[in-house]
Amino acid sequence: MLAEEIKKQIDDMDYISMLSLWRFAPSGSLMFQGETGTYFAKIMKEKESTLSHEERVNVSKSIGW
Fold this sequence. Notes:
Layout: H1 4-12, H2 15-24, H3 34-48, H4 53-63
Helix pairs in contact: 1-3
């Protein structure tokens, strides 16, 4: 079951924070496993969908790889 505090943490993140975590979290991060991972991906996609292609590219460039 997804803990409310984790759900709130995910909900409160902006897209750049989510993408940074997606790219740089250690392998096996609990944020991307099970119900938490499913919820994280859903919310990240929702936030991504509010941005234009150019905005998404700029966010990606700003955090690097």
